[in-house]
C-alpha cells in the first residue's frame, strides 16, 4: 500500500505534536521511523492507522482518502500491547474469525504461526498472565496472521529477548519480502533498523528532519540533528 | 419535669404530642385545620403520623404514639381491654358510601336503594368488580361486616383485594370501573379527579365512628401523657366539636364529619 | 429488637411452610424484575457502549441526563407509566394497568438509565482502546460492538446486577402500576409495605429476609461465574 | 398525558411561588440525603478500599454480603432502624424516632453498602497497582490510603453520586422512621407519595420534576469538576 | 543493602515460575539480570520488592527478614510504568513529600534532577499525556529522587532513545557509585549490561543458570544455555 501524507498537522490542545508537509512511502517498502522520545512517532503511527484524528491535512492510501476498506487491510501493533481478555489462541485467531476463515484453517494457521515464533506452549494461556515480552510476541503474531497490506509497528521488540528477536525480525522481514506488505517500523534500535529497513524517516519535535535510503540516513545524514542522534546510536 | 426541660429541644415550651391516625383522616385535611387551632390555644404541637389502622394500633401498643385517632371500634375496644389504652371516647363520625361507575352497570342505585347489605349481595351475585382495601383497616373491617351480614364469603376474580390505603383503592376502582367502599371524606376530597359516583349512602349500618384513645402511660417514660390528655379534652370540648362540625362546609358545602362526643 | 429476631425465625418458617401464596409472590417478584432487567439490558448495553465510544454534539448533556435519571424516584417512574397506560391515557386501550406487564414496563424504565450509566462508565475507560484494537484487526461495527461487550463483560455484569437489585427492591413503581392486587400483582416489596402498614412487623421482616436471601443467591452464582476468569 | 404536561408547568409555578412550605420540604430532602451520604462516605470509602486491596479469610463472603445489601429494600432498612430507635427499642432512650436524625440514620444504612460496593469495584481493578507503587515509594498505610483515594477519585465520586441519588429518591425508609410529619419530617419523596395516593398527580409530578432538576444540577456541577482533568 | 535468597519457590496455580536455591547479592553491587522472555525476571523483582508473596522460601535483607523498614528503603521501577494521575512534578516529588522533606527543598531537588535528565519541559505536563519513553524517564526519576538503598529496575530503558539512554545510564551508574545504592537491573540489552553491571545473573525457566562476574558470564559462560543466549546477544 502506498501512503502519501500532505500538510499533516496534529495538535493536542495548544501543543503541536506533528507537522509534516509531505511524505510519501512507496508500496512494498520497509520504512523505519526513528527519533528521540516525544518526537511524535507513536502519534504518526496512530494517525496512519486511523486511530486518531488529524487537526488538518490529508492522507492518501493508494491514492484514496481513508475509508473502511483501507482500514480492513492494515493493522497496528502498539507500543503497549492490548490483548483481549481471553486465551492467546483466541487473540491470534480473532482477526481470522472476523474474516470468516473456516475453523479448521484457523486452527492450522494459528498453530503454524505459533510454531514459527516458538510460542506453542503459550497458546492456551490466559492473555493477562503473560510476561511483558510474551505479550509483545502475541501482539505481533496477531498482526501477522491475516497478512494485511500495511503493517504499522510501534517498537514491537522493545521487551523481547535476543533469541526471540531474531525470530521476530525474520517473520517481519518475510512478510515484507514474500507478501509484499508495506511496513512502517518505529524503533530505537539502530542495529535493528540496519538489519531490516530500506528507508528511514528521522523525526524530531513533530517534524520529519530527514527521509531517505537507510545507509544514507544512518551513515551520512545531511541534517546535523540526525547526525548527532545516529552517532549516539552507533556508540550504544 | 425539670428533667424533661433539660432535654433541650423544647425548653420553655410544651413537649409535642405524637398522634397516630389513619391516612383517610389525614388526607381529608381535618387535622391540619383542627390541630393548628389546638396549638394556638395550648401551645402544644401535635405531630401526626398517618399510617394504616393496623400500624396505628401497633404504634399505640408499643408505646410509640401518645394518642390514637382511629375508626375501628371493635379493635379499639379490644385495645383498651388489653390495657394498651386508658379509655376510648367517641369523637365524631362520618359515613361510608358505596361508590361505583357513573353509569352504575349493576343498577345498584335502583335495586338496592339505601341497603348496603343488599348492594353487596347484588355485586356478589352478578360478580361485579369490587375493590377491597384488604389491609385490615377500619374501612376494611366494616366492609367485611357487610359481607358477613349478607352471608357471603367474597371470593373469585371479581373480588379484588388491593392491600392499600383509601385514596389508592379509590384510584384502582376508578381505573377498573369497579365498586368500592369509601369513607365520605376521602371520596369528597377526590371527587373531581375520578369518574365514580355514590351508589349507596345513608344506611345506618354505614356509620363510621371515630374514637380517640390516650395510650397507657405505663408503657414507657417517654409517653407524653399530659399532652395527650389535654388534646383529648380539647377535642371533646364544645370548641373542638364545633370546629369539627364546621370543617368542609366551605369547600364541599357539607360537613365531612359530624361531631358526637358525649 | 424482638421483632427483628422473630422476623428471622419467621422467614425460615415461611419458606418451609411451602405456602402457595408466599411462593407465588416470590415467583412474581423474580419474574417481573428479571424481565424488566432483561428488556432494559437489551437497550442499555448498546446505548451505554455507544455513549462511551462515540463523540457527538450534545453528548455531555445526554450523559448528565442519564446520570440524573439514575436517581429517578420509583414513584415518579410509576406515576408517569401509570398516566400513560391508564384508562384515559394514550395507551389505555391496551388494558395494561394493574397487570404484571405494566409492572415490567415501569421497572424497565427505572432500570434502563442505571444499566446505561454503569456500562457507559466502564466503556469510557477502556472502550476506546478496545474499539481501536478492533479497528486495527479489521472488525466492522457489529463485530466491534460484540468485542466491546466481551471485553466489558465485568462492567456489564455489574450493571445488570445493580439494575436487578434496584428493580427487585423498589416498591414505588410496582405499587402504583401494579396495585398490589392479591393473587395478581402482589410482589415481595408491595407485600412488605402492606404488612408494615398493618403493623405486622415480623412478617414484613421475614419477607425482607427472603428477598435478601434471594439476592445473596444471585450474587453467589454470578460470583462463581466471574471467578472462572 | 395532560397530567404530565400540567405537572411540568406546575413545577415551574411551584418554584416561582416561593412558597415557604415547598422550600422547606426541598431543603429538608437535600439536608437529610446529603448528611446521610456524607456519613456513609466516611465509612464506605476506607472499607471499600480495604476490601479491594486486602486479602483475608471470608473475604468472598463479605463481598457477596455487601453486594446483596446494595439491593436492600428501603422499607426493610427503615423498619429495622425504626425498631432499634423506637421508644421500646434498645436505643429508644435517645428519642430519635420521627426526627430528621432518624431519617439520616436510616438512609445512611441504605447508602453505606452502595458506596462501599462501587468503591470496592474500582479498587479491585487498579487498587493493587497503586498500593504496590505507594509501597515502593515508601508510603506508610495512612499515605497509601490517601494516595488510593486520590487515584480512585473518579470511582469514589461515582459511588457518592449513586449513593446520593439512591438516598434522595427513596421513600420507604424515610417514610417509616420519619413519619412524613408536616413541617418536621416531610421530604420530597414522602410528599410525592402522599400526593399520589390522594390522586393529586399534577403536584406529585411537579415535585418529581423539581427533584430531578436538583439531581441534574448536582450532576452538572460534578461534571465540570471532573472535566478539570 | 545485601540480599540473600534461600530456597525460593513461586507458583502461579500449577505453574512454577521461580525456583531459586540460593542467591546472594552483595551490598553495593550492580547486578544485571538477563534471560529469555518468561524466565521469571519480573517475578523475581516483584518478590524482592515485597510486591508479591512467595510460595515458599525466605529472603533476607541485610540479614533481616522483610519488614516495613526494609521496604521504606528500596524501590522498584516496573516494566510497565504506572504514573500517578497528576503532573510530572507531583510524580517525582511524591516520594519526597512522603518523607516530609521541606517544600522548598523538594522544589530544588526535583528541578535539579529534571535538569540532569533533560526533562525540565515535561515537569508541568499531565502524566497521562506522556509518550512511552517520556513516561519511563519519569518513573526512573521518581525512583532516583529519594536515594534508596536498593533499586530494582525492570527494563527501565526499553523505550528510551539513544541520547536519553546515555543520560539515564549515567544517572543509574552514579547512584551506585556515589550513594552506594545496591542495584538490580533487568535488561535484554547486552551492551547496556556490559557498560553498567559488575555481576550478572542469567535466568531461564525460573532457575538461576549462571551467576558471576560480568565478563565471565557474558564472554566465557560455563553453562551451555547461557552461552547460546549470549552469543545471540552479541551478534544482535
Ligand atoms: N493527550 C496528549 N496531550 C498532550 N500532549 C500529548 C498527548 N499525547 C501525546 N502528547 C505529546 O505528544 C508528543 C509526541 O508523543 P508520541 O507518543 O507520539 O512520541 P513518540 O515519538 O512515540 O515517543 P517515544 O519514543 O517516547 O514513544 C509527546 O511530547 C507527548 O508528550
Ligand atoms: N498470574 C500468572 N499466572 C500464570 N502465569 C504467570 C502469571 N504471571 C506471570 N506468569 C508467568 O510466569 C513466567 C514469568 O513471568 P515474568 O513476567 O517474571 O517473566 P520475565 O522474565 O519478566 O519475562 P519478560 O522478559 O518477557 O518480561 C512467564 O511465563 C509468565 O507467563
Ligand atoms: Mg512512542
Ligand atoms: Mg519482565
TrEMBL record, chains A, E:
Q: Which Pfam families match?
A: ABC_tran (PF00005)
Q: Which residues form the ABC transporter domain?
A: 3-230
Task: Report whether ATP-binding shows up as a keyword of the record.
Answer: yes
Q: Can you name one GO molecular function term for this protein?
A: ATP binding
> Is the keyword ATP-binding assigned to this protein?
yes
Which InterPro entries has this protein been placed in?
AAA+_ATPase, ABC_SmlMolc_Importer, ABC_transporter-like_ATP-bd, ABC_transporter-like_CS, P-loop_NTPase
Q: What domain of life does the UniProt record list for this protein's source?
A: Bacteria
Question: Which terms are listed as keywords in the entry?
Answer: ATP-binding, Nucleotide-binding, Transport
Q: What SUPFAM superfamilies does UniProt report for this protein, alphabetically?
A: P-loop containing nucleoside triphosphate hydrolases
What PANTHER family does its record include?
A: AMINO ACID ABC TRANSPORTER, ATP-BINDING PROTEIN-RELATED (PTHR42781:SF9), SPERMIDINE/PUTRESCINE IMPORT ATP-BINDING PROTEIN POTA (PTHR42781)
Question: What is the designated name of this protein?
Answer: Glutamine transport ATP-binding protein GlnQ
Give the taxonomic lineage as stored in the record: Bacteria, Bacillati, Bacillota, Clostridia, Peptostreptococcales
What gene codes for this chain?
glnQ
TrEMBL record, chains C, D:
Q: Which family does it belong to?
A: Belongs to the binding-protein-dependent transport system permease family.
Subcellular locations according to the entry: Cell membrane; Membrane
| Recorded superkingdom | Bacteria
**What NCBIfam families does the entry give?**
ABC_perm1
What is the protein name stated in its UniProt record? Sulfate transport system permease protein CysW
Residues in ABC transmembrane type-1 domain copies: 26-222
Give the UniProt entry's GO cellular component terms.
Answer: plasma membrane
Membrane disposition: Multi-pass membrane protein
- Give the originating organism: Thermotalea metallivorans
Q: What are the protein's UniProt keywords?
A: Membrane, Transmembrane, Transmembrane helix, Transport
| Gene Ontology biological-process annotations | transmembrane transport
Write down the Gene3D superfamilies for this protein, in alphabetical order.
MetI-like
Instruction: Spell out the InterPro entries in the cross-references.
Output: ABC_perm_TupB-like, MetI-like, MetI-like_sf
Segments spanning the bilayer are 25-53, 65-85, 97-120, 204-225
Q: What is its main location?
A: membrane
Amino acid at each position: 500500500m502506498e501512503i502519501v501524507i500532505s500538510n499533516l498537522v496534529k495538535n493536542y490542545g495548544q501543543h503541536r505534536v506533528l507537522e509534516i508537509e509531505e511524505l510519501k512511502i512507496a508500496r512494498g517498502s520497509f520504512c523505519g521511523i526513528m527519533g528521540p522520545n516525544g518526537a511524535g512517532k507513536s502519534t504518526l503511527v496512530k494517525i496512519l492507522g486511523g486511530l486518531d484524528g488529524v487537526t488538518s491535512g490529508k492522507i492518501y492510501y493508494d491514492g484514496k482518502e481513508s475509508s473502511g476498506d483501507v482500514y480492513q487491510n492494515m493493522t497496528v501493533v502498539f507500543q503497549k500491547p492490548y490483548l483481549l481478555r481471553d486465551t492467546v489462541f483466541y487473540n491470534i485467531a480473532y482477526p481470522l474469525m472476523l474474516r470468516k476463515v473456516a475453523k479448521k484453517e484457523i486452527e492450522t494457521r494459528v498453530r503454524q504461526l505459533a510454531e514459527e515464533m516458538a510460542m506453542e506452549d503459550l497458546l492456551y494461556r490466559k492473555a493477562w498472565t503473560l510476561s511483558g515480552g510474551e505479550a509483545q510476541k502475541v501482539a505481533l503474531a496477531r498482526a501477522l496472521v491475516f497478512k494485511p497490506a500495511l503493517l504499522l509497528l510501534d517498537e514491537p521488540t522493545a521487551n523481547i529477548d535476543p533469541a526471540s528477536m531474531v525470530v521476530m525480525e525474520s517473520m517481519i522481514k518475510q512478510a515484507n519480502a514474500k507478501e509484499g506488505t508495506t511496513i512502517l517500523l518505529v524503533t530505537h534500535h539502530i542495529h535493528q533498523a540496519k538489519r531490516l529497513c530500506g528507508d528511514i524517516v528521522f523525526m524530531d519535535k513533530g517534524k520529519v528532519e530527514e527521509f531517505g535510503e537507510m545507509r544514507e540516513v544512518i551513515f551520512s545524514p545531511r541534517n546535523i540533528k540526525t547526525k548527532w542522534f545516529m552517532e549516539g546510536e552507533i556508540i550504544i | 419535669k425539670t428533667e424533661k426541660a433539660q432535654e433541650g429541644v423544647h425548653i420553655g415550651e410544651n413537649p409535642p404530642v405524637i398522634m397516630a391516625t389513619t391516612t383517610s383522616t389525614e388526607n381529608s385535611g381535618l387535622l391540619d385545620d383542627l390541630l393548628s387551632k389546638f396549638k394556638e390555644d395550648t401551645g402544644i404541637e401535635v405531630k401526626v403520623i398517618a399510617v394504616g389502622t393496623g400500624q396505628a394500633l401497633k404504634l399505640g401498643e408499643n408505646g410509640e404514639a401518645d394518642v390514637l385517632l382511629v375508626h375501628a371500634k371493635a379493635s379499639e375496644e379490644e385495645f383498651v381491654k388489653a390495657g394498651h389504652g386508658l379509655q376510648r371516647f367517641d369523637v365524631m363520625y362520618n359515613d361510608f358510601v358505596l361508590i361505583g361507575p357513573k353509569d352504575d352497570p349493576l343498577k345498584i342505585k335502583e335495586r338496592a336503594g339505601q341497603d348496603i347489605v343488599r348492594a353487596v349481595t347484588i355485586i356478589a351475585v352478578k360478580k361485579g368488580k369490587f375493590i377491597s382495601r384488604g389491609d385490615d383497616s377500619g374501612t376494611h373491617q366494616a366492609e367485611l361486616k357487610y359481607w358477613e351480614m349478607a352471608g357471603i364469603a367474597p371470593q373469585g376474580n371479581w373480588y379484588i383485594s388491593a392491600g392499600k390505603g383509601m385514596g389508592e383503592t379509590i384510584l384502582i376502582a376508578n381505573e377498573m370501573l369497579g365498586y368500592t367502599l369509601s369513607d365520605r371524606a376521602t371520596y369528597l376530597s377526590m371527587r373531581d379527579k375520578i369518574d365514580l359516583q355514590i351508589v349507596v349512602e345513608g344506611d345506618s349500618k354505614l356509620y363510621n365512628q371515630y374514637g380517640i384513645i390516650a395510650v397507657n402511660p405505663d408503657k414507657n417514660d417517654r409517653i407524653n401523657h399530659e399532652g395527650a390528655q389535654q388534646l383529648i379534652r380539647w377535642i371533646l370540648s364544645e370548641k373542638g366539636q364545633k370546629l369539627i362540625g364546621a370543617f368542609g362546609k366551605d369547600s364541599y358545602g357539607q360537613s365531612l364529619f359530624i361531631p358526637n362526643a358525649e | 429488637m424482638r421483632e427483628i429476631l422473630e422476623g428471622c425465625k419467621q422467614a425460615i418458617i415461611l419458606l418451609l411452610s411451602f405456602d402457595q401464596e408466599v411462593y407465588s409472590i416470590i415467583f412474581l417478584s423474580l419474574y417481573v424484575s428479571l424481565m424488566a432487567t432483561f428488556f432494559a439490558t437489551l437497550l442499555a448495553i448498546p446505548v451505554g457502549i455507544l455513549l462511551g465510544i462515540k463523540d457527538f454534539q450534545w453528548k455531555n448533556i445526554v450523559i448528565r441526563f442519564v446520570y440524573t435519571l439514575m436517581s429517578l424516584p420509583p414513584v415518579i417512574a410509576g406515576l408517569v407509566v401509570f398516566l400513560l397506560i391508564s384508562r384515559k391515557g394514550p395507551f389505555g386501550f391496551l388494558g395494561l394497568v394493574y397487570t404484571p406487564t405494566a409492572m415490567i414496563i415501569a421497572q424497565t424504565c427505572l432500570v434502563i438509565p442505571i444499566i446505561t450509566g454503569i456500562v457507559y462508565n466502564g466503556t469510557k475507560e477502556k472502550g476506546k482502546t478496545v474499539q481501536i484494537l478492533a479497528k486495527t484487526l479489521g472488525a466492522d461495527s457489529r463485530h466491534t460492538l460484540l468485542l466491546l461487550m466481551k471485553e466489558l463483560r465485568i462492567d456489564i455484569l455489574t450493571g445488570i446486577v445493580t439494575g436487578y437489585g434496584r428493580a427487585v427492591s423498589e416498591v414505588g413503581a410496582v405499587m402504583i402500576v401494579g396495585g398490589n392486587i392479591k393473587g395478581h400483582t402482589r410482589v415481595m416489596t408491595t407485600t412488605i409495605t402492606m404488612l408494615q402498614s398493618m403493623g405486622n412487623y415480623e412478617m414484613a421482616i421475614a419477607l425482607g429476609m427472603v428477598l435478601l436471601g434471594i439476592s445473596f443467591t444471585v450474587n453467589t452464582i454470578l460470583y462463581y461465574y466471574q471467578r472462572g476468569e
